[in-house]
Each structure stands twice: as structure tokens, then as C-alpha cells.
Design goal:
Layout: H1 3-28, H2 33-52, H3 56-74, H4 81-102, H5 115-125, H6 147-151, E1 164-165, H7 172-179, H8 191-197, E2 203-204, H9 239-266, H10 274-304, E3 305-307, H11 309-312, H12 315-326, E4 330-335, E5 340-342, H13 343-348, H14 350-364, H15 368-372, E6 380-389, E7 392-399, H16 406-415, H17 427-431, H18 455-464, E8 468-474, E9 478-486, E10 491-499, E11 502-507, E12 511-516, E13 522-524, E14 527-532, E15 535-541, H19 542-546, E16 555-559, E17 565-569, E18 571-579, E19 581-582, E20 591-596, E21 602-606, H20 608-612, H21 619-624
Domain Histidine kinase: 225-489
Organism: Noviherbaspirillum album
GO molecular function: protein histidine kinase activity
Length: 625
């Protein structure tokens, strides 16, 4: 794919995604003219680029859809479910063609616009009153020094007011208003200006006597038309280059930290004369280098951060169509779309969130008849929410459906042979059974669920990015899944600890405080317990959990898990922001990466999910063992 086509595909895919979001918004607010104009502009922009790239199927679909939106905008076509569905299908077709191009398909190999799409678009336009037919204008034929004409290449409009009409029946002023964002110019162009900038074959026509002139905003002598080109303040950079830059920035910070430690050790020796002056200069230079490397790291990280709204905006249509297929009335509520997270997390969360939304619709939300028998509203609600909590990003998917029955989950898992009779005795452990490979409560597999290959994929994807997932469910009230992920994947704030001589690090996101451990403990059921701030907490040895030889552990770390506990270690060496390298050659339960400390020592990084689960080996790991 050449660079121009690649750039067009990337920008057009963003526009196509925005179109779906605008259409679903228009379905809720049919009188929103701003949304209609935004839709018109999006399809116009895609059509112009597609015409330049010689993509006739996309041009045809966009042209017909422009006619539909023109009718909606002028009130000649009502906003009906058919019109919304036609727009969604057109957007889907355009998106599919763009994805094929992104995957390496040749432009001339793309299929033509299907007749079914043309039929539904034509049916949606049928309510439009007779108007002159519109002939598409090739984007390549528009001269670069005619900005008004270039922006006005689109379907015909019948807005009232002053207008100039070409031989093809184009209403230049109305189209100008449709494609130029509101507030860009202090006043709408007059017929004289449009006539002067239009091609030679355009002639101004007299305004009909019975038409009322368009309302004009009050003139402001201080305002001047914007004539200079708007400066582009963004550029597209290959993600691989950003990843490489971030790795170099992280390593530079680590190198600066190691140099600082070495310099601190050198200052313990006595230097005199010129050596002392050189040491002072070296200390100042290293301090400056360390500060700049930290700023470089922070700036590089910011380039990878993206709002989760980029991901969330793909789901309203998915929920709408699946709910329609299942015969359920569901409203998807999105909150916190502006929350920023690492680009890699945004890209990798799509499939897990799709699985969870499909499960919420199929398993969680009751059928219409079943829900009508409850006191709940007829329209169910699924909440998709994101927010920042410390150094983590929290993503919640909740529904007000029927909830999960722990006893039924346990019975299903036992019937499938996934667990033994004595496993998953608590409700929390029973809820975790849905993450087992092959687990499903569906008797018969459908196109939506029932094959047991969904939720285990979710847990695997979350833990791959050093995250954790938690379930809360109340039978008859609903279910909530909460995903915790680090905001930055490569650099993690950690606490450095030692146990049995091994250097370990644990994410600071779950560390509440450090306490001193006594010589002896109280016991509950044979397990050691320590009272912390008035509450008894279980004490667990990190050495014993990881298989090290257990010695005298003097320090306890209070872990902020769903069920808090104290993790016993030999010593705490401090805190550090570490560059984490994932384990690839082998899998160690409880450990998900390695790092280098400021002294250059190799450190094992304990998994966040492992700590939140109470340092218990997952059920899947037990089965594998």
C-alpha cells in the first residue's frame, strides 16, 4: 500500500467509526442538526478521498448516503429506523472496504456496492420531494485555488435563502454551510462571493419572491474572515517507532539511576584537590542528565496515551444490533471516555470487552417477558465506565440483569468435570469459575455464546498486561466486572522486597502500608493471623508461596486486595519505577516479568493479579499441574 492510500485509509476509518456514533446519537435525538451536519461532512470527506484514490464502490455508497443525509437535514426525509439502519449499513460497508485495504487488498479487487445496500438507501430517500438530480463531481477535477468549490462537492440541497445554482443543479451556499464547521467563519458567504469563486459555468439566479431571506448574524467590524491556511498540529507516527523510543527512554532512566547509585558510593571516599572538584562537577552533570532523562521518559509516555473513548465508541452499534437480534431492549451508557491509557492496552482490550458485552446481553439481561415480571424498568441498562485510580486505570462493565447464582456455577463446573467436589466453596471462588476454559452455563451453543471460549480469553488478555479482573454479582440485581490495568505498561512504580535472599518487586498499586511482624501470631483454623487497625488479617509467607526456603520474616506488607491480607517478607529495600521485561521463554506462577534495580541487580516482578487473588495459584494452573 502506498503512503497516500495508507493515510486515506487511516483517516477514513476514524471518520467511519465517528459516523456510527453520530447515527446512534441521531436515533436518540432526531432534531440534532449539528449531528446531521457532522454526518454529512464525514461522508463527504470520505467520498472525496475515495474518488481521488479511484475507489468507485466507496464513492457510490457515500454519494447515495449523502443524498439521504441531505434529505434528513432539510426535513424532506424523516428520521426513521429505516433511515438510521440505512446509514449504519452504508457505514459498515465503507468500513469493511477500508479494512480490506488496510489488510493489503488491492483497490481494484474490492467488491462493488451490493444491491441490498442500494435498495435500503433508496427506500430511505423515497420520502424526498422532487428535486433536480445531482451528478457527482470528481474530486480530481476541482482546482486547488477554488476552496469554496472544493468543499462544496456533494449532493444537492434545497435550503431556503440566497443561492447560486450550476448547470448541474448544485446549491453552492447550502452545501458550503453543510461542510464547513460551525464558527469557522464569522459570517456565511454571500451569493456574490460564491458566484465569484464558483466555476465559470455557474450563474446566479434570482431568489424566488415568496422565499424569506436567511437570518444573518449581526455584523462585527472587528471580525475578519480567516484567509490563512489552518496549521496542522498533529502528525502520524508508526507505533513501532514510539515503542522503540519508549524503550530507549526507559533504559536511559535506569542507566541514570544506576549511575547515581555508583556516584553515591564514590562520595563515601575522600577526594582532595582537583579530584574533589571533578567529583562535584560530575555530580552536577549527572543530576542534570537524570532530570532530562526523566522528562524524556515522561514525554515519550504521553505520546502513547490515548483516551479509552476511541475504544468505547465502537460498542454502541454492537450492543444495539445484538440486542435487536436477541429481542431485548437495552441502553448502553458510557462514562469516563476521556480517561487515558497506554495505546497497547486500548488496542488489546477490544476483544475482551466484546466478549463481556455479549455475555451481559445474552446471559445477564433477562428476556423481555422475564424482565416484565420484575419491578425493573422495561429497558435494561449496561454501563461501560472508565476512571483513573492512582497509577491504575479502572474499567467497569455492569448490568442490571438477573445476576449470577454461585451454586449453579459450582454445579455446572462439577458436571463438566472442571473442578472437584471440595473446590470453589465460597461465593467469590464460585464466581471465578466462569474464567475456566470450557465453562459455560448454556445447554446449547448459539451464535452469541455457549462454547466456553469467551471469559477465559478475557482473563488471559487482562493478565497479559499485568492487570486483574474482579466480579461482583447479586442474584436478581445484576453483575459488575471491574478490570484494573496499569496506566503505563513498560514502567511500573514498585516496592522492592527481599525474601530468602531473592530480590523481588511488587506493584505499588496494591501496597497499603508496611508493618512490623511479631515473633508469634494468633491462629485461626491453624493459619497465622495479625490484627491490623482493629481487623484480623491473614499472614502469608511470600517465600513459602513462591517455593523458597522459608526463614525469619520480620516485615509485613498490607495488600489492598478484595480480601485484604498481610504478605510476610524478610526486608523492604525501598521503592522504584522499574522498566518491566515480560517473561517469554517460561511461565512462572505469580511472576510476570523481570527488571533491573538501580544497582543493576535482576529483580523478579510479582503479578498484580496474583497479589489481588491473595497469592493463590489460579484454578487453571492447578488443573495444569
Amino acid at each position: 500500500m502506498d503512503d497516500m492510500l495508507k493515510e486515506f485509509v487511516v483517516e477514513a476509518l476514524d471518520l467511519a467509526t465517528n459516523v456510527e456514533e453520530h447515527l446512534l446519537s441521531l436515533e436518540r435525538r432526531p432534531d440534532d442538526t449539528d449531528t446531521l451536519n457532522a454526518l454529512f461532512r464525514s461522508f463527504h470527506t470520505i467520498k472525496g478521498g475515495a474518488g481521488f484514490m479511484n475507489l468507485p464502490a466507496i464513492v457510490s455508497a457515500c454519494h447515495l448516503t449523502e443524498n439521504l443525509f441531505d434529505g434528513l437535514r432539510t426535513g424532506q426525509v424523516p428520521v426513521t429506523p429505516t433511515a438510521i439502519e440505512a446509514g449504519l449499513q452504508a457505514s459498515g460497508f465503507v468500513g469493511d472496504q477500508l479494512k480490506q485495504l488496510a489488510n493489503g487488498a488491492a483497490p481494484d479487487s474490492l467488491p462493488a456496492m451490493p444491491a441490498a445496500l442500494e435498495d435500503i438507501l433508496t427506500a430511505a430517500i423515497e420520502g424526498k420531494s422532487a428535486a433536480p438530480a445531482t451528478a457527482p463531481v470528481a474530486a480530481a477535477a476541482v482546482a486547488a485555488d477554488e476552496p469554496v468549490a472544493a468543499m462544496a462537492v456533494s449532493a444537492a440541497s434545497s435550503d431556503p435563502g440566497e443561492f447560486v445554482v450550476s448547470a448541474d443543479g448544485l446549491d453552492w451556499e447550502a452545501l458550503y454551510r453543510a461542510v464547513v464547521p460551525a464558527g469557522t467563519l464569522p459570517d456565511a458567504p454571500t451569493a456574490a462571493v460564491l458566484a465569484a469563486s464558483a466555476p465559470p459555468n455557474v450563474t446566479p439566479l434570482a431568489k424566488p419572491a415568496d422565499d424569506k431571506p436567511l437570518a444573518k448574524p449581526a455584523a462585527d467590524d472587528n471580525q475578519r474572515p480567516i484567509t490563512s491556511q489552518v496549521k496542522e498540529d498533529t502528525i502520524r507516527i508508526d507505533a513501532v517507532k514510539l515503542d522503540a523510543l519508549l524503550e530507549v527512554a526507559g533504559e536511559s532512566v535506569q542507566a541514570a539511576n544506576q549511575a547515581s547509585v555508583l556516584l553515591e558510593k564514590l562520595t563515601q571516599f575522600k577526594f582532595e584537590g582537583q579530584a574533589a572538584a571533578l567529583m562535584s562537577t560530575l555530580q552536577e552533570t549527572l543530576s542534570r542528565a537524570s532530570r532530562y532523562s526523566t522528562e524524556l521518559q515522561r514525554a515519550t509516555l504521553s505520546t502513547r496515551m490515548q483516551p479509552v473513548g476511541r475504544l468505547f465508541q465502537k460498542f454502541p452499534r454492537l450492543v444495539r444490533e445484538l440486542a435487536k437480534d436477541l429481542g431485548k431492549d437495552v441502553d448502553l451508557v458510557i462514562e469516563g471516555a476521556e480517561t487515558e491509557v497506554d495505546r497497547v492496552v486500548v488496542d488489546s482490550l477490544y476483544d475482551p470487552l466484546v466478549h463481556m458485552l455479549r455475555n451481559a446481553l445474552d446471559h445477564g439481561i433477562e428476556a423481555a417477558g422475564e424482565r416484565a415480571a420484575t419491578a425493573k424498568p422495561a429497558k435494561a441498562t449496561i454501563l461501560l465506565k472508565a476512571w483513573q485510580e492512582g497509577s491504575s486505570v479502572m474499567i467497569e462493565i455492569s448490568d442490571d440483569g438477573k445476576g449470577m447464582d454461585p451454586a449453579r456455577l459450582r454445579d455446572k463446573a462439577m458436571a463438566k468435570g472442571l473442578i472437584g467436589e471440595n473446590a470453589a466453596q465460597s461465593n467469590e471462588e464460585a464466581l471465578q469459575l466462569i474464567f475456566l476454559p470450557g465453562f459455560s452455563t448454556k445447554e446449547v451453543a448459539s451464535s452469541v455464546s455457549g462454547r466456553g471460549v469467551g471469559m477465559d480469553v478475557v482473563k488471559t488478555a487482562v493478565e497479559k498486561h499485568r492487570g486483574a479482573i474482579r466480579i461482583d454479582s447479586v442474584l436478581g440485581e445484576g453483575t459488575r466486572f471491574t478490570i484494573r490495568l496499569p496506566i503505563e505498561l513498560s514502567i511500573v512504580p514498585t516496592m522492592l522486597v527481599r525474601t530468602s535472599g531473592a530480590a523481588l518487586a511488587m506493584p505499588m498499586a496494591v501496597v497499603q502500608r508496611v508493618v512490623e511482624l511479631p515473633e508469634t501470631f494468633d491462629e485461626v483454623g491453624g493459619a497465622p493471623v495479625l490484627r491490623d487497625q482493629g481487623r484480623p488479617l491473614a499472614v502469608r509467607s511470600l517465600a513459602a508461596i513462591l517455593g523458597y526456603e522459608q526463614g525469619r520474616e520480620k516485615v509485613g506488607i498490607v495488600i489492598a486486595a478484595p480480601q485484604p491480607y498481610i504478605l510476610a517478607v524478610d526486608a523492604v529495600d525501598g521503592t522504584a519505577d522499574l522498566v518491566i521485561k515480560p517473561l517469554t521463554a517460561l511461565a512462572v506462577p505469580g511472576v510476570n516479568g523481570t527488571a533491573r534495580s538501580a544497582e543493576g541487580e535482576l529483580v523478579l516482578v510479582i503479578s498484580l493479579a496474583f497479589l489481588l487473588d491473595g497469592c493463590k495459584m489460579s484454578m487453571a494452573s492447578r488443573l495444569a499441574a
